[in-house]
Amino acid sequence: MPPSTTSRKKRILIVDDRQDHSGAVGQLLNEDFELVGRLSDGASALHETARLEPDVVLLDISLEDMDGVEVARQLIAQNSEAKIIFLSVHERPSLVGLAAELGASGYVYKSRAAAELRRAIARVCIGDKYFPLV
């Protein structure tokens, strides 16, 4: 009998062009979630998200090849079922607002990732949103 969808680990895809950041985030999540991939560019994220079928895409807002906001727009336009949480060093209310308007499920500051990331993922996986107070 297959495991129920409620008991399986949530599948996470990390998209960050900084290997040190994606590695640190992977370390934070390794016990509670299934890390399905770590990608370093937006083009790969657009191509691989459908194949990897993550529950959540942790997306850096500043990628070298394309803007993370554009990656999110395209993922949403592709009707990806993955929830998008921006994970960013940019702690600007304007970017948080843009992410919310765009249809992302959350925004976590990298400076607060250790304290907030697990909670943010859990919240968006049950259909809630997770945005810092601005």
Structure in a nutshell:
Helices cover 41% and strands 19% of the residues. It is an alpha/beta fold and 134 residues long. A 5-stranded parallel β-sheet has the order 2-1-3-4-5, sandwiched between helices.
Plain-language structure description:
With 134 residues, the protein is of the alpha/beta class. It has a single domain (11-125), classed as 3-Layer(aba) Sandwich (Rossmann fold). Helices cover 41% and strands 19% of the residues. The chain is built from 5 helices and 5 strands. It has helices spanning 19-29, 42-52, 68-77, 93-102, 113-125, and strands at residues 11-15, 34-39, 56-59, 83-88, 106-109. Strands 2-1-3-4-5 form a 5-stranded parallel beta sheet, with helices on both faces. α4 (93-102) links the parallel β4 (83-88) and β5 (106-109). α2 packs parallel to α3. The protein is globular, with a radius of gyration of 14 Å. The N and C termini lie far apart (46 Å). Residues 1-5 have low confidence and may be disordered.
Series of H and E elements: EHEHEHEHEH
What's the architecture, going by CATH?
3-Layer(aba) Sandwich
By helix and strand content, what is the structural category? alpha/beta
Q: Mean pLDDT, as a whole number? A: 87
Helix amount: 40-55%
Number of domains: 1
Low-pLDDT runs: 1-5
How many distinct helices?
Answer: 5
